[in-house]
Design a protein that fits this description.
Four copies of one chain form a homotetramer. Chain A is elongated and about 70 Å long. In chain A, a hairpin with a 2-residue loop joins strand 3 (33-36) and strand 4 (39-42). An eight-stranded mixed beta sheet of chain A has the order 9-8-7-10-11-15-12-13, with helices on both faces. The first copy, chain A, contains seven helices and 15 strands. Chain A has two domains: 13-68, Vcp-like ATPase, Chain A, domain 2, CATH 3.10.330.20; 73-260, Vaccinia Virus protein VP39 (Rossmann fold, 3-Layer(aba) Sandwich). Chain A is of the alpha/beta class. Chain A is 23% helix and 28% strand. At the C-D interface, strand 6, helix 2, helix 3, helix 4 and helix 7 of C face strand 6, helix 2, helix 3, helix 4 and helix 7 of D.
């Protein structure tokens, strides 16, 4: 474990945070400087400083140097459309990622939050293919992927998936589109049967439409769920949830395409609730 | 994407599911056979069959051949203690995993659900170190890790973490113990400052104790949260949540160790709620 | 406050609870006796005993004498159909009950949980009218209302509400039916305009149908919500939610019929969330 | 049901709502007028208008005339302190209100939201006693009670409950104070044994302290819960929860004082979850 020294080195990606939670994520480069609203920071002053230590601008303003995680990065992605949030992303990764070397397809690219998370998760031997028919959105996703140096793992197609996916036998496929129920034949053609399909949808009506189409297109093990994340005020003597929370980002739908008629062998779908109950 | 053929091959890991959600996960091996409650399945009959297709035992009983995901695997781990569930695992991975090649420490090993997920996430260039003072539990974790062939990525220490961790400058550290507040000096010694620390705790009292200790031990950006997962009955014309759900598995706590006194530069902790709100 | 003596009197309604939460609710009557699975209790032995004290059967088995609340009663109603639960009942009462002396209409009668709660809430000067086209269900409701001595406050109509309600200018109206969207003209004819209408529905599809019909039938201030009740294990040193909880009983919909076209003056409906946020 | 005419009469309490959800609740009085930000409304113009109809100011601005419910009133109470919200109020009423004619004690008076709801619920034959040691707060509660004409049903005591309650054998008692665990002997002296006690508390630490004190002071059937209210956007074709919601107002605690030692006959407390599950 010696390859992670306790001081900042050129090339390290560091997150600087101030007392108002203002954050900067930057890659250290000798000679470069960061302009903040509270003064200038010379990268050379950061290099050699200890991780976790306090850094001060020429105006005497303080930041603390933290290691950015994927979670931090995702929350600071440039957005041009609603992004998928970490509470869903982690769950999607577990459901879809069949392991390293997997090939995963997504549509649309959106702002690239899921693209980045998938590219991060499939590893250097895996691959992500991202479809969007809108060039402007896909350019945002592409730039976000490049910011992480993950572009070797991602292929972007500017293409309407109504025309079908180019790939065959993909390991997983995720749709973040308003009308995923329209593209299930295309999904079946691209995704290896038995492999995980997922979608995120904001409204109950869309969920109904998708579940109906999944039933008609030989998908099995249909699972519909939502995740609620509640934060607490971290005050030991007065522990309590925050006053307000995010009530909804989207419903998640997962299913597996199976051979024609094979779904009947699985019986009616039922929620997997009992499978995951505490022992 | 040609390396994933649409038929089952020797060496493939397949999940067989029947109409009652009974599941078998097995690695195909020419000549082997699987005894089920509903008859025998010869691996050779499976090899060459299509993914997603219906497989029939010699008694005429049907299974469908699906690709198991990490999610499926985790729900079928052999358990000897309460495991961390997928809804938390995905979120923990996003918070902790600093990327491929990361070194992550966990204690205790428990039944190994988190060990497996971490080993899966850090990739072949990363490493997981898992501590437990109980050999019997750690043996369960070890066997679960081996089932996935992930043992090259995991080092097990049978050791009380009160005596300290062996590692230095680790990239992330997670505690699944009843009393994590007792071991924060040890955590600081093992974890690179500025890097993510996490814990899961069943009771509010434990959360209070941990948050108080984090405050006293120069940890910053303390985040306390819980995740609720609600399933829906996947019936298009009668979409509704299930009757009952899991109400609680645990509270999650995340924080970063920082240099002594540096936390003051970050101001009082506040929940990150606004950071993650829909735009 | 002298009219509530601290000892049990003939005519008092008492709830006897044992260590397994087995409960009996009975009205004390000199000379009567209660047969339990753990022995006989003579009412005369109860009369004169202190409220809150331990009562022992002739077999030495103990009960504690508690004052039953409406909540206790509702949970022990004889049921022949799904009942509305206390978490919803209290909220419905606040939304619907325009005060003492109010006239409230409900359909269907169901098992009478809402009938009882409404009759209790409108007071002796108010009145509840309960419709059901099924005599068998209504008989259950009627018996439950009689058990509380509330029958002077309730009129039962065995009648299909498609034929219209008999009443005019009612103060509130609640529908617990599968298809409330079919009866909104009848609701408008029976309910004084501007007064509260409510419904409970298990599925999202039914909610969509009802909201669409409300829009088309000049109802305004449409509110759709759900209530989640989470219990905690009452252990001071290990405070935590229960493992499992009820995930769903029903969606609640509230609205007000207004004069034709008047709804336009209220603008588009929006959820009242901000109105009720903590200050 | 003829006593509720369909037109507004002098003495009627009406709620006027505009398109921005601005609301006025007023009692109609011949000759009076209401000054709004959008022009003047003469009560005489309202009298005789139909309930639910559109009313226009002299500036041409529209309101709709609705019947205010207790729910509407509570949301528009003058507040000087955090109030208890309708989602909790309805549930508290069901748990505490032992029927008409009941005597209920509360402390502190706060802004009077609970006082008003209790006075409304106990009916004309019941009585509410409200304690607060702060005159300024109690004056707000008193004015709110008077606004509803409920003052004949309420007695206010400006008194520290550490000195005890004046009453004996009350039917129910509710504490909305930061430290209810300090006053349980006083509660036992005032509340008839076996009758419902309740409290609302914002933090988990306070809940732990109260539950411990309840255990030590011979209270049984301890129940701890929280209520979450989630609103939906009432759009039929795009039904979905609101983006954000109230995450927490308070934990509710209920219990019954029993005779000394009688609690042992009830066994350890357990959450009533199963009692209320859907059938």
């Amino acid at each position: 474990m010696s390859e992670s020294p306790s001081t900042l080195q050129p090339g390290d990606v560091v997150m600087l945070v101030d007392e108002r939670r203002k954050q900067f994520i930057l890659r250290l480069e000798s000679g470069a400087e960061l302009q903040t609203h509270r003064g200038v920071l010379h990268h050379d002053d950061l290099i050699g400083a200890a991780w976790g230590s306090r850094i001060t601008t020429h105006l005497g303003y303080s930041f603390v140097a933290l290691v950015p995680t994927l979670y931090d990065h995702l929350l600071h992605l440039r957005r041009q459309s609603q992004i998928i949030f970490p509470k869903e992303l982690g769950y999607i990764l577990l459901h879809l990622a069949v392991g390293e070397g997997a090939t995963v397809i997504e549509a649309g690219s959106g702002s690239g939050a899921l693209t980045v998370a998938l590219a991060w998760a499939v590893g250097p031997a895996g691959h992500v293919v991202s479809y969007d028919r809108r060039k402007d959105l896909q350019d945002v996703a592409r730039r976000n992927v490049e910011k992480f140096g993950l572009e070797p793992r991602v292929t972007f197609h500017e293409r309407d998936i109504a025309e079908g996916f180019v790939e065959r036998d993909a390991g997983a496929l995720f749709l973040d589109l308003p009308d995923p129920h329209l593209y299930l034949p295309q999904v079946r053609a691209a995704l290896r049967l038995g492999s995980p399909f997922g979608a995120i949808l904001p409204t109950a009506n869309q969920v109904s439409a998708l579940v109906a189409a999944l039933d008609q297109n030989d998908f099995a093990r249909i699972e519909v769920c939502e995740l609620l994340l509640r934060f607490y005020k971290p005050v030991p003597a007065r522990l309590r949830p925050t006053d307000r929370m995010v009530a909804h980002t989207g419903y998640l739908v997962f299913a597996r395409p199976v051979a024609e008629g094979a779904g009947a062998a699985l019986g009616p779908d039922k929620p997997p609730d009992d499978d995951i109950a505490p022992a």
